[in-house]
Each structure stands twice: as C-alpha cells, then as structure tokens.
Amino acid sequence: MALIDPLSFQLYSIRNFPPLESQLALVAAAGFTNVEPYGGLYGDPEGFAALLKKAGLTAHSGHFGLDQLENQFSAMVAAARTLGIHTLIVPYVGGTDRGTDTASWQAFGARLGKIAAKLKAEGLNFAWHNHDFEFEKLPDGSYPIEHILGDDIAWEADIAWVVRGHADPSLWLRHFAGRVKLVHVKDIAPAGEKTDEDGWADVGTGTVDWERLWGEAVAAGAEIMVAEHDNPSDAKRFASVSAANMKKLAGL
Predict the structure, then answer these.
(1) d(Cα 218, Cα 226) in Å, to the nearest integer?
(2) Of 120, 211, 215, 251, which sits 20 to 30 A from 227 (CA to CA)?
(3) Residues 192-241: pLDDT tens digits?
C-alpha cells in the first residue's frame, strides 16, 4: 500500500508536557494530522476520542504494552476500536521477558505471533517496534529482530534506534520489505550535542540521512510515518520543526 499518514506523531514524545488536550492542540497546530498514542493513554477511550475529534486528529496506530495485550486483551481491543486504531504495536520488551539466545528469542516471537493471530481474528493489525538490542548479533550469527518478526509479523521500524544499534537501516528495510508498515522518524544529534535531550534531535536536524531513508522506507511499504523524540526539552519546537521537515520529505 502507499503512504497513508505522512504526518503522524508519537504522543510519548511530549508526555512530560501535560495536559493531553494541550498536547493534541500543539501537535495539530504544528501540522500533524495523525497521532500514535501509548499505553498510559487508554484509561478513558471515549474521553480521548472526544479530544482527538476536537483537535481534528486521527489515531490510526497505537503502542500497547505486552502485558496489556496479553492480560487486558478485550479492553485494549475495545479502546482501539473507540479511537479508530487499526494497528496495535508492542514497543518494547525488558527484564525476564527479553531473550538471551536464539531459542529464547524464537519463543518470544511465537508469543507475539499468538497476539497477532488474536488481533487478526478481531480485524486488527499487529506490529513490533524496535530499539537497539534487536540488532546485537547472537552466537549463531542471527539477530533478535529476525526471530521477533518471524515469518509474518509486521515491523514499525525505529530507524534511529537501528542506527544506535550499529546496524544499517537500508539493509534491514530491504530485508523486511513488504512488512515495514510504519516507521518512526527520529533523529540523532551529532556526538556530544543535545546531551540534555539524551542525544536525540528534531527530525531533519540530526545525523540520520532522512533525505535518503524516507524514500527507502516508503519503498519498503511504510504506510504511516511517525515523528518521535524520546526526551525533547521543548515540545513546541520539536513538533513544529519536525512537521516542517517531514512535509518537505513527503513533498507536501
């Protein structure tokens, strides 16, 4: 499919700048049209949906915790339907749930496969969002990302985390072409800069080659392009700068 939402925004980026209504207004004013919620925002789906409508925004994808999808499945499906989310994404795994070798990562991939099958039965899509640890080579030469995605799980590719994992985003976008349904458009500051923002940068102002990678992501099948920054010091600056540069990248 072609790119559907070139201007989406991960709300986790501005979690430190409440309230939610003001966050949505800020995102819309910057020029974004779609948002990607995260696990802590599903407590009042009806109220959230009303705020989205007021801001003139949609929410076609969302991050959901592994625990939420395994232990609160019906409630999360209901929340997704209320908000108009069609793709539910698990964004992270840590602690004892994280694999340590090929067998354990294969088992984890099978675990995700069960969630994906349940969501498919509900008419919903599932994807995995990466960090850097998925690209640490295992003793047998394989990588966790291969076992996590298995044969059919879709991928929300966080390109900047791929780079921080010392991997080549172009290679992995080609490897999983057709299963890259969403992409996190995130940037990395030059070494030693933006230390107060954990070394991340506004989209288009850092070292990630988005001029090239945007087109490669779309060619790999990306339908939603999502701006993200893990720790911006200025929410308005991050949203406005990123939206302007993403519009240029999308030719809008």
Answers:
(1) 12
(2) 120
(3) 999 999 999 999 999 999 999 999 999 999 999 999 999 999 999 999 99
Q: In which domain, by residue range, is 129 found?
A: 5-250
Q: How many domains does the chain have?
A: 1
Kindly report the CATH number assigned to the domain that includes residue 35. 3.20.20.150
Give the three-class secondary structure for 138. coil
Query: Half-sphere exposure (CA, 13 Å, Cβ side) for 120?
Result: 10
Does the pTM exceed 0.85?
A: yes
- DSSP-based three-state secondary structure for 209: coil
| 3-class secondary structure, 7 | strand
Return left, alpha or beta for 74; rule: phi > 0 is left, psi -120 to 50 is alpha, else beta.
alpha
